[in-house]
Amino acid sequence: xxxxxxxxxxxxxxxxxxxxxxxxxxxxxxxxxxxxxxxxxxxxxxxxxxxxxxxxxxxxxxxxxxxxxxxxxxxxxxxxxxxxxxxxxxxxxxxxxxxxxxxxxxxxxxxxxxxxxxxxxxxxxxxxxxxxxxxxxxxxxxxxxxxxxxxx
Length: 152
Fold this sequence. Notes:
The chain has helices at 5-25, 39-55, 63-95, 102-117, 125-146. With 152 residues, the protein is mainly α.
């Protein structure tokens, strides 16, 4: 639970990856839809938290495990980013009295997540995410192996 170099590097690398991927996603968003200024920063914050918690805490177990944890973190980052932006959109619509009841709002939020996931297709977003994940995971694993304590 204590901070380590591997956790910090994992958090920073996955935050940078999420920010970079956000820049690739923005051109895929249809013209006229509101893209907040905090889009990249919000995704980077999620990337930092999941990089720290998922990849950083398990660094030093081997490159195969490191890359597997990195892929897990990347999928989790995509899920939570989609959840965040669908939730924000649902709240904005709910405040405009768009929904009849809370159940409809939650159903619409899931539909919004599916709709927003279509923005990941195109502009080489998924290949960049995959290559970036493998690179970030390998760097975190290297740092984790260099900074691990010897067995006593």
